[in-house]
Inverse folding.
């Protein structure tokens, strides 16, 4: 497994997005644990989660608890950087709401600490801007958590270029990651990716394969990915992740998975070196 950097941490070039194991349509716990353990066996050292990754209102933090259980039962669990997030909420009816207040983020971080069973969270990210709360207040709360030693590294998610610059300034140059949606179907974060490359900040594409419901359709929806995949004898999903890795050394994709076979296919993308011609063909999608 090739590696990349997030702040001062060296992590696997591809991480595991754990959200599908906790929201609607999730598998049973045994399969989820098997998926996480398969990823660890293959060399994954980055797992992405959030307190809002749950299905029902009474089980906030379901995904964090699941990850903590999986890591505690594997001999490589201590080598993993767990990236979690706060500021998004799920009332339990399938909707998503926001609370970017300083009070809430600090309370959410404390709860995440308890669920993960750690003294300091490896990477804590402000999940999504709350239009009712000044962005400086939200990021300021993350800065306070960093200064207090509650978190080791700080990141933001769903941010635009101005917010990236503002967050980095508020954090005193300590912003280590930006997690935005990016995939063949969603290319509007190109500017944020470029800015992260300029600043040396890790860019973590979420839903890099197009989302849970669309990942299997990637090859049929985007012909160039299917053509390259057929020529290489691999899946279009693997080609997609290899394309992302080729875009910039700061990119660390976090494909979601709830099956051992799908995460293992995704991880193999770190070994797939695309040619300049193939990359140009995929960039043109």
């Amino acid at each position: 497994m090739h590696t990349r950097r997030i702040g001062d941490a060296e992590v696997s070039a591809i991480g595991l997005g754990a959200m599908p194991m906790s929201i609607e349509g999730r598998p049973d716990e045994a399969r989820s644990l098997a998926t996480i353990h398969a990823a660890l066996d293959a060399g994954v050292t980055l797992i992405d989660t959030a307190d809002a990754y749950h299905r029902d209102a009474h089980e906030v933090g379901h995904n964090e608890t699941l990850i903590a259980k999986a890591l505690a039962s594997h001999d490589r669990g201590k080598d993993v950087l767990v990236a979690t997030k706060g500021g998004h909420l799920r009332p339990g009816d399938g909707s998503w709401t926001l609370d970017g207040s300083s009070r809430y983020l600090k309370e959410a971080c404390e709860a995440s600490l308890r669920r993960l069973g750690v003294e300091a969270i490896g990477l804590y990210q402000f999940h999504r801007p709350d239009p009712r709360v000044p962005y400086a207040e939200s990021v300021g709360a993350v800065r306070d958590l960093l200064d207090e030693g509650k978190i080791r590294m700080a990141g933001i998610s769903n941010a635009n270029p101005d917010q990236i610059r503002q967050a980095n300034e508020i954090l005193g140059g300590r912003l280590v990651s930006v997690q935005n949606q990016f995939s063949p179907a969603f290319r509007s974060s190109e500017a944020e990716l470029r800015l992260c490359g300029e600043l040396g900040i890790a860019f973590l594409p979420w839903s890099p394969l197009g989302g849970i419901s669309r990942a299997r359709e990637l090859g049929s929806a985007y012909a160039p990915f299917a053509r390259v995949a057929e020529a290489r004898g691999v899946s279009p999903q693997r080609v997609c992740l290899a394309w992302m890795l080729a875009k910039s050394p700061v990119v660390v994709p976090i494909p979601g998975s709830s099956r051992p076979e799908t995460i293992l296919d995704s991880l193999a993308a770190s070994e797939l070196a695309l040619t300049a011609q193939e990359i140009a063909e995929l960039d043109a999608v």
Summary: The first strand starts at residue 3 and ends at 6. DSSP finds eleven helices and eleven strands in the chain. The mean pLDDT is 96.
